[in-house]
Design goal:
This protein is mainly α and 373 residues long. It is built from 14 helices and 2 strands; from the N terminus they run αααααααββααααααα. Strands 1-2 form a two-stranded antiparallel ribbon.
Length: 373
């Protein structure tokens, strides 16, 4: 009788760990359920149409900014000028349209051109002059702030009624702006998963030196990420103009640059780049919007509200970090199961990453490999 033991059946089956994106969507479900229960105890209904519309409206504005912020953070960069770009874009769009429906395309084009130019300047300074992204984008934001404070003393311009529908029209209970934001998020997911530049963003964030040695034009990737980030902030500025009916220079004081970074990190994107994705960012945006809605329904003190939001963000990042440490501690040194997120056995060097291998909390990627998208 053969005494050979089938090693495949003898080895204990490995239970698949939940990825970071899956975790953050479970957290979103937990926030909705727990928030609904708390509001119900206080005599309200969190899931009413009015509260749902409010939550989606909040998420649409932050969602555009966080989408662009995801691209730059994946490249191990960030953008602190997005709030100022939003304010400038709202004013450019409103003053260019000047209440004339025929000038709507011109106003949109002007915003995209100016916002894209700001992103191009940020990218060139970071990629060519090698200035730290924090200093570059903060300095750019202060330049824009100085211009706004000097040039505009209050609201300016007028948005035509036709364009204001972008800010107020609803499809059922879903605001049009939220629907457009969701489409933009879907496009961002597809861009990262299918385009060469999307793969290169992960590679540059994982290791810029390795990416450069692999033949990737890292400077071009960094510039592209910052241009997309500024254009997304410009679209958010157009949404603000549509809601207010005019441009507002005071938008930069709303803290969207920090909120967008918080949403991206809450969604599981590694702040040091190379891992994460737009799908997680969307969940992070919805969590923050849902928390704000709950706090408003319960009439929580604004200062205490910020404390609670900070606690949630820190707790989430701490959980991600702990999972990553545990994952590295339990992984076999020479694994051959294809779950190494890199170029281990079973994965070709230039093969696109499998969405089920590596997961959302895989290792930092090297050139040609992505993480969770």
């Amino acid at each position: 009788m053969s005494t050979t033991v089938d090693t495949a059946t003898a080895m204990p089956s490995r239970r698949r760990r939940l990825g970071t994106t899956e975790l953050v969507y479970m957290a979103l479900l937990g926030v909705v359920v727990s928030g609904a229960v708390i509001v119900a105890i206080s005599g309200g209904n969190l899931l009413s149409t009015a509260n749902t519309v409010e939550m989606l409206s909040r998420s649409s504005l932050l969602g555009f900014v966080a989408l662009g912020q995801t691209f730059v953070i994946l490249c191990r960069s960030l953008d602190l000028s997005v709030g100022y770009v939003m304010a400038l874009s709202s004013l450019i769009g409103a003053t260019t349209m000047a209440g004339d429906p025929a000038r709507i395309p011109l106003g949109i084009a002007a915003v995209v051109l100016v916002a894209g130019g700001i992103g191009l300047a940020n990218g060139l300074i970071i990629a060519v002059l090698k200035v730290n992204p924090f200093i570059t984008t903060l300095g750019m934001g202060l330049i824009i702030k100085g211009y706004l404070d000097t040039r505009y003393k209050g609201p300016a311009g007028a948005v035509p009624e036709a364009f204001r529908q972008f800010g107020y029209t609803r499809i059922g209970f879903v605001p049009l702006s939220a629907a457009v934001m969701l489409l933009a998020m879907a496009a961002g997911i597809a861009y990262l998963r299918t385009s060469r530049t999307g793969y290169h963003m992960y590679a540059v964030g994982g290791s810029e030196d390795v990416a450069r040695l692999s033949g990737i034009r890292t400077g071009r990737v960094m510039i592209t990420a910052h241009v997309l980030c500024s254009i997304a902030a410009g679209v958010a500025g157009l949404l603000i103009a549509a809601r207010f009916g005019t441009g507002s220079a005071l938008v930069y004081s709303s803290g969207y640059e920090l909120d967008s970074i918080a949403a991206v990190v809450l969604g599981g994107t590694f702040l040091m780049g190379g891992r994460g994705g737009v799908a997680g960012t969307l969940a992070g945006v919805l969590i923050l919007a849902e928390l704000d809605t709950v706090f408003n329904v319960l009439q929580v003190d604004p200062f205490f509200k910020e404390v609670l939001r900070g606690v949630v963000i820190i707790a989430a990042v701490a959980i991600y970090a702990r999972r990553q440490v545990e994952r590295r501690a339990t992984r076999a040194r020479f694994g051959g199961d294809g779950d190494d997120g890199g170029t281990g056995p079973g994965r070709a060097p230039d093969r696109p990453p499998d969405s089920t291998a590596g997961g959302a909390d895989g290792d930092q990627v090297v050139a040609g490999h992505g993480g969770d998208r």
